[in-house]
Each structure stands twice: as structure tokens, then as C-alpha cells.
Write a structure and sequence with these properties.
The chain is α+β, with helices and mostly antiparallel strands and about 200 residues long. Helix content is about 40%, strand content about 25%. It is built from seven helices and seven strands, in the order E-H-H-H-E-E-H-H-E-H-E-H-E-E. Helix 1 packs across helix 3 and helix 3 runs antiparallel to helix 4.
Length: about 200
């Protein structure tokens, strides 16, 4: 079995989106913000759009492959960097995102506005998306896929931030040096738990 971690390229996007769709298929956050009808297909398409128009242009996305097949994906955004304009207009992308979120679009917008209130104002490296295919979890692929981003944060002496809605993810990220900054349940306690976590540069 040959395992390799490397920067994501355009040819990886479809498979990377598929991995993320499977990884987030039963995740509390996506259950809250994405229509349950054709749920995994919607998540996969949302991730495909994000990877193509945001993650890849930023140049901080990594994949881990097993025998040449992408099985883990991580995308970081440097909040102090200027990314190229998406090739599709922002209004057109917003329409596609709204259509894919379906009957959860308003909940998604409200959730997005709520957690953005707690994002740090200073420049940092933000983990925008991360997932490993369910059939290859607990093999160390996730930590391996995240490492280039953590190394980048350390080189530039930037804090790394993320949000998660999974208590098991909290344990996973804690082992990588992240600490809980805040924990609450969104939508006045009706929605999923959300943990904001920070890793100081080393």
C-alpha cells in the first residue's frame, strides 16, 4: 500500500469532493445547513464548488492518496492573503450554494453569521474543510493530511483556527495541539454544538 500526501491539483477535485461528501454525510453541522433530500449528493457538489473556486486558488489544499486514489482532504485559508477572483461570479456561486442548501438555506445563512462573530480578527490560518473517506478513517490519514497546513502556520508564525460540531473531532484536534476557545450550541441552543479551536504557532 503506497500512501502519499501532496498539494491538491485540479484533477483531484471530483474525487476530493466525493470523499468530503461521504465524510460529512452524517455530520451534525451539515445535517443542520444542507437539505436532507439527496443529502450526500448536495454536500458533494457544495464541496466541489468550494474546492474549485476557493480552495484551489488559495493554494493551501492537501490530499493524501492510497495507491493513487484520494482518501483524505484538507483545505486551509490564510485570512491575510488575497486570492484570485473566482472564475464564476460571486452572485452566481451564491445562487448555486443556496439551491444546494435547499430548505436549510436560511438556517445555513444564520449559522454562518453566528459563528463568524467569533472568528479572530487577526490574520490566521483557517481550516475550511477536512475529511477522510469513512472506509479509511482511523489510519492516521487525517493527521498526515493536516500536517502541511500546520507546518505552514508554524513557518509564518500564525495561529490555526477551526470549528467542529463533533466531540470526537475535538479529541482528534486536541491531539494535534488545538485548544478549545469557545463551545456553544448554535441557534439559541436548538442547533448543533460548535467548538471553536485554536492552535498556537510553534
Amino acid at each position: 500500500m503506497r500512501i502519499e500526501s501532496r498539494a491538491m491539483v485540479a484533477a483531484d477535485i471530483d474525487r476530493a469532493a466525493e470523499v468530503l461528501g461521504l465524510a460529512f454525510g452524517d455530520y451534525a453541522w451539515t445535517r443542520w445547513v444542507v437539505d436532507e433530500r439527496d443529502h450526500i449528493a448536495r454536500i458533494t457538489r457544495l464541496q466541489q464548488l468550494f474546492l474549485l473556486h476557493f480552495a484551489l486558488p488559495h493554494g493551501s489544499a492537501c490530499v493524501t492518496t492510497i495507491d493513487g486514489t484520494v482518501e483524505s482532504v484538507a483545505s486551509w485559508i490564510d485570512t491575510g492573503a488575497t486570492a484570485p477572483e473566482p472564475t464564476t461570479s460571486m452572485s452566481a456561486l451564491a445562487e448555486q450554494f443556496a439551491e444546494l442548501e435547499g430548505n436549510r438555506h436560511q438556517a445555513s445563512q444564520a449559522a454562518d453569521a453566528e459563528y463568524h462573530l467569533w472568528r479572530p480578527a487577526e490574520r490566521h490560518l483557517y481550516l475550511a474543510t477536512m475529511g477522510t473517506s469513512p472506509s479509511h478513517q482511523r489510519m492516521g490519514l487525517g493527521a498526515r493530511t493536516l500536517q502541511p497546513g500546520l507546518d505552514l502556520a508554524d513557518r509564518h508564525q500564525l495561529s490555526a483556527y477551526l470549528e467542529t460540531s463533533s466531540e470526537s473531532n475535538v479529541d482528534f484536534y486536541s491531539a494535534l495541539g488545538f485548544e478549545i476557545v469557545r463551545h456553544w450550541r448554535i441557534a439559541d441552543g436548538v442547533g448543533p454544538d460548535l467548538w471553536l479551536m485554536r492552535r498556537a504557532p510553534r
